[in-house]
Design goal:
This protein is of the alpha+beta class. It has 3 helices and 7 strands, in the order αβαβαβββββ.
């Protein structure tokens, strides 16, 4: 479902989203979301069971901004950076909000140069055109593994 223009706009949204995180411009990250939104990180098992609980939950852009402020000013964690590899979105519905699923991988590089495959999974998105700009009304990050680092500090 969905036309080529919608697909390209979604791909561009995902690319810009990942680049913002990967280049440590985290203060810009909340701008990818509507004021009232859902951002949730969970495991595939929890998602299959319909369990709302996850390791990260926010229901507004303000909560996302607070998360970044805490990351910058309060959280203590080993310096690290991410590199996202994001697949082409699959549009599941485009009758109202755009509903899409996109596979992703995140490679994490630690301060000492060690790299590891940090997470693999799928973004389950509900995206809305907000005055000509696509923004996430909902982004559920479904991680294939139920094993998580003790602190998922940087947004996925």
């Amino acid at each position: 479902m969905g036309d080529a223009e919608t697909l390209l706009r979604l791909a561009a949204l995902n690319t810009a989203y990942a680049r913002t995180i990967d280049t440590d411009r985290l203060e810009e990250w909340p701008d990818f979301f509507l004021e009232r939104c859902i951002y949730r990180v969970t495991s595939a098992e929890n998602h299959r069971r319909g369990q709302a609980a996850g390791i990260v939950y926010a229901d507004s852009r303000a909560m996302l901004a607070d998360r970044i402020a805490a990351l910058r000013n309060a959280n203590i964690f080993e310096r690290q950076c991410y590199r996202h590899i994001v697949g082409m979105p699959s549009i599941l519905d485009a009758a109202g909000d755009i509903v899409a699923e996109t596979s992703f991988l995140v490679v994490r590089t630690l301060r000492d140069g060690r790299m590891d495959l940090f997470v693999a999974g799928a973004y389950l998105d509900r995206v809305r055109d907000d005055g000509g700009v696509l923004r996430f009304a909902e982004r559920v990050v479904v991680c294939d593994s139920s094993r998580f680092d003790t602190l998922v500090a940087i947004p996925l």
